[in-house]
Amino acid sequence: MTRHHNMVLAPNYPCSCCEDCVFIPYVTYETGKGSLRAAKRRFICTDNILRISQEADEQEMHQGKKSPRKMTIMQRMSSISGKQKLNPEWVRQKVIEEIINYEEGYVKNLADVIEGPLKEARLRKDIFDTSQIERLFNNIEELFEFQVKFLESLKKRLKAIVHKSEIGDTFTEHQEKFVDIYSRYCNNHSSALAEYTILNQHMVYTIFFESCRLLKDMESIPLDGYLLKPVQRICQYQLQLKELLKYTSPSHPDHAKVKEAECIMSSVAATVNERKRRTENINKLALWQSSIEDWRGEDILVKSSIMIHSGSLYKISAGNKQLRRFFLFDRQLVYCRKLLGSGKLQYKGRINLDQCQTVDLHDNSEPGIVNGWKMENQAKNKWIVLFSKNNSDKTAWINALKEERKQVQLDRENNFMIPEAQKHAAYVQVRRSNSTRSKKQNSFSQKYKSTSDLRNSLLSDQTSRDVKSKSNKKLRGFSNKMFLKKQKKLSQLHD
Fold first, then answer.
1. pTM above 0.85, yes or no
2. Pairing with 456, which of 11, 180, 314, 471 sits 20 to 30 Å away (CA)?
3. Are 345 and 293 in contact (CB under 8 A)?
4. CA Rg, the chain, in Å?
5. pLDDT, tens only, 273-317
């Protein structure tokens, strides 16, 4: 059993290495079972908990057991704190040190990616073009520069007595940069993973990425693991600040700042996730637009980035009653007509919701109008009446229109905009998928010029399968007869 300084320490025995040690029962951390086992009358300095736990992990690995799960200092401390009350000031110091250590390791990982794969990829113009590099590495250089400055700001706020340091305002000062830089990185992360997956299917790229990793002596994880780290890091800040707040006394000058920082980083993570979801959604909108026949006017992504509601409504315009399929997006309402036979949708028009207001209509306030409302454009002195089949549909549409206005206002407050490059990439991806689909259809139509050709081909395939099946049956029958003959001869010899 491991002992501190090769001694067994009594509960109140002073530690020879430090004066401010907090003594707790010596524990063996069993990673496989996730439990703690205390040994009687054996006490160690808390400064060596991590080292002893690590030695226990290494011993388990040496014995051939399952690889232990890595734990942070705070995870170990939180497990131990149920057994023994810890000094809050000491724990606060350890949390601050962990935040700094995590940040230093994170910055090093970013630097390794930039100095390794990114730098080498720019030199290998024979296998990488500019667009591939941009899709794969995104804005990681800008992210690295920001994290270096953020780390410097954290270190400047450290004091000689670490637990008295005030680091909460560091996060509040960099809030806008966190949202801006991480939103752009996370928005493009799925594209980066897709690009890496495509490249890694070819041996030349697999060898290239592994060579870069060995060249920079990086951890033995693939490149996509490094590209995932920023996405994980933006979520870790909130958890670390929550732990820091837990061990920060209300009388501490940093308490209010840490509390505000925790709320801010929680909001930042939520905003980044929402923007990532909205950005991924634009591919679906581009695909939806490509399915609409006779589309006219500007593309759907010029003003909109999310579909809020859809359904069938009756439209009255110039005295005509028409059944149309309506699609509610942020800032516009598009309506289409269903084509007979094909079932496809044909574009008929749109309503600019920034210039319209919704006016509820009481039943029969206008002749024959039930469950209806009016969309008025006061600037152009135009209006259009819409009504649904029942009252529940009307309620759903009215609520959706209110939600659309709230979403637009929220986007304005957060300065949310889809970059033009991402809009362009969405339409390019749709054109590629449509082109691949049309090529398959053309090759099929060229092979089978008529339905009779297709029928004859299917019949010939079926005939060949039947012939093969019959021949297999004959072979099986022949082998069975031969086996019976041999068995009969053996029995005669035995007799």
1. no
2. 471
3. yes
4. 34
5. 887 788 778 888 999 999 999 999 999 999 999 999 999 999 987
Helix/strand/coil for 187: helix
For residues 113 and 227, give the distance between their C-alpha atoms in angstroms, rounded to a whole number: 8
Q: At CA 44, angle to CA 43 and CA 50, rounded to 5?
A: 135
Q: Is 309 exposed, middle or buried (0-12, 13-18, 19+ CB in 10 A)?
A: middle
Q: What are phi and psi of 32, to 5 degrees?
A: -65, -40
Alpha-carbon gap, residue 11 to 365, rounded angstroms: 86
Residue 35: phi and psi, rounded to 5, are: -130, 170
Helix (H, G, I), strand (E, B) or coil at 111: helix
Encode pLDDT of 364-387 as tens digits: 777 778 889 999 887 788 888 999
Separation between Cα atoms, residue 334 and residue 349, nearest integer Å: 6
| Residue 369 structure tokens | 């109008």
Sequence-distant (6+) residues with CB within 8 A of 266 are 238
Q: Which residues contact 432 (CB under 8 A, 6 or more apart)?
A: none
476 vs 19: which has the higher pLDDT: 476
How far apart are the C-alpha atoms of 175 and 187, rounded to whole Å? 18
What does the CA dihedral 471, 476, 482, 488 come to, rounded to 10 degrees? -150
The rounded distance, in Å, linking the Cα atoms of 350 and 332 is 7
Q: Which two tokens stand for residue 428?
A: 């390019």
Instruction: Please give the Cα distance from 296 to 341 (Å, whole number).
Output: 22
**Six token digits for residue 261:** 């920082």
pLDDT at 76: 56
In angstroms, rounded to a whole number, what is the distance separating the alpha carbons of residues 98 and 87? 17
Strand partners, 479: none
Closest by CA to 282, choosing from 215, 372, 187, is 187
Token pair, residue 463, equals 């005939």
**How many residues does this entry show for the chain?**
495
Instruction: Please give the structure tokens belonging to residue 309.
Output: 């509601």
Sheet arrangement for strand 332-338: 345-352, 332-338, 320-329, 307-317, 382-387, 372-377, 357-360
Residue 244 has pLDDT above 90, yes or no: yes
- Better-predicted residue by pLDDT, 494 or 51: 494
Helices (H) and strands (E) counted in the chain, each on its own, are 14, 9
